[in-house]
Design a protein that fits this description.
about 300 residues, mainly alpha, Farnesyl Diphosphate Synthase, 15 helices, binds geranylgeranyl diphosphate
C-alpha cells in the first residue's frame, strides 16, 4: 500500500473514530457537564488516531468488520488522550500546545484537566464492559485486562514514572528501550492485540500482533524524539526541542540523530517481518509501521 493510500485510509478511520467518540461522550445536564466538555475537548479534535487504526486494521485481518471494532478502538483512544492531557500538566511536561491548539489545562484549568483525564480513563473501561461493544463477555473481559495492563503501572504509567526519574539520572540503551517500551509501546501493542482478541485469534497470533505493536511503538517513539529535535512547533502541533533541555533519555541523546533514524527504520522493518505469514489484508498494518517513522507530526 502506498503512503498516500495509507493516509487516506487513516483519515477515514479517524473520521469514524471521532464520530464514535462524539456519540460515547454526550454532554449531561448540570455542573458536571464541564468535565465532559473538557473530555470532549481532549479527544474530539486532531490526533492521528493511530492506535484506533491499529485496532481496526488488526481486527480486519481476522475477518472482523470495522463497525464491530470501532467502540474498542475509541476506548483505547480515550486512554491515549487522557495520558496526553495529564502529561501536558505543569508538574509533568508543562505544555501549552497540543494538536495545534491549547492543551486541556490551558483551555479549561488544571483541576478540570486532571478530572477530564480521570473521566476518560474510567470511561474507557465502561465502554469495554458494555455489551454494545461486544456481545461476548469473555472478549470484553480480555480487552479490559489487556488494556488495564498496558495502561497501568506495568505499562504506560510505569513508563511515565521512569521518564520522570530519567531527568535526574542517565540511562543506558537497555534502560532507555525499556522506558520507551512501557511509555509508548505497551499501548500500541495492546491496540494491535485488541484486533486479534476481537477476531478470536489463536494465542500465537495474539502474541504476534502484540509484538508487532510493540516494535512499531519503539520505532514510533524514536521518530517522536527526532520530531522533537527537528520539527517546528507549527508542523508538530506542539512545543519541540524540549527533550534535550529536560535531559530526557532518548536514542538521540545516546547515539545521535543519524543512528537513531536508522534504528527506527530497522524496528519498523522488524515489525513488518512479524506479519510475514499474513497476506494483503495486513497491508494497512505494514503501511502503519512505515508511517510511524516517516511521519511529519
Ligand atoms: C500521564 C499517565 C501518563 C502517561 C503519559 C503517553 C504519555 C505517558 C505521555 C505523552 C507524551 C509522550 C511524548 C508520549 C510518548 C507517546 C507519544 C509519542 C504520544 C503522542 O502520540 P501521537 O503522536 O499523538 O499518536 P496524536 O496527537 O496524534 O494522538
Amino acid at each position: 500500500m502506498s503512503q498516500d493510500a495509507f493516509k487516506d485510509q487513516l483519515a477515514a478511520t479517524a473520521a469514524s473514530v471521532t464520530y464514535t467518540l462524539d456519540a460515547l461522550l454526550s454532554l449531561p445536564d448540570g455542573g458536571e457537564g464541564r468535565v465532559v466538555e473538557a473530555m470532549r475537548y481532549a479527544v474530539l479534535e486532531g490526533g492521528k488516531r493511530l492506535r484506533p487504526y491499529l485496532v481496526i486494521e488488526s481486527a480486519k485481518v481476522f475477518g472482523v468488520e470495522s463497525s464491530r471494532a470501532v467502540a474498542a478502538a475509541a476506548a483505547i483512544e480515550m486512554i491515549h488522550c487522557y495520558s496526553l492531557a495529564h502529561d501536558d500538566l505543569p508538574p509533568m511536561d508543562d505544555d501549552d500546545l497540543r494538536r495545534g491548539r491549547p492543551t486541556v489545562h490551558m483551555a479549561f484549568d488544571e483541576a478540570t484537566a486532571i478530572l477530564a483525564g480521570d473521566g476518560l480513563l474510567t470511561r474507557a473501561f465502561a465502554v469495554l464492559a458494555d455489551p454494545a461493544t461486544h456481545t461476548d463477555a469473555s472478549i470484553r473481559s480480555e480487552l479490559s485486562l489487556v488494556l488495564a495492563n498496558a495502561a497501568g503501572s506495568d505499562g504506560m504509567v510505569g513508563g511515565q514514572m521512569l521518564d520522570f526519574l530519567a531527568q535526574s539520572e542517565s540511562l543506558n540503551e537497555a534502560e532507555t528501550e525499556r522506558l520507551q517500551s512501557l511509555k509508548t509501546g505497551c499501548l500500541l501493542g495492546a491496540a494491535a492485540e485488541f484486533g486479534a482478541i476481537l477476531g478470536k485469534a489463536s494465542g500465537q497470533d495474539r502474541f504476534a500482533f502484540q509484538s508487532f505493536g510493540l516494535k512499531l511503538g519503539a520505532a514510533f517513539q524514536i521518530a517522536d524524539d527526532l520530531l522533537d529535535l527537528e520539527a517546528s512547533p507549527q508542523d508538530a502541533g506542539k512545543a519541540t526541542g524540549k527533550d534535550a533541555a529536560a535531559g530526557k533519555a532518548t536514542f538521540i541523546s545516546l547515539y545521535g540523530a543519524d543512528r537513531a533514524r536508522k534504528q527506527a527504520w530497522s524496528l519498523a522493518d522488524q515489525a513488518i517481518e512479524i506479519l510475514g505469514k499474513f497476506g494483503a489484508e495486513a497491508d494497512g498494518l505494514r503501511a502503519a509501521a512505515r508511517f510511524s517513522v516517516d511521519r511529519q507530526s
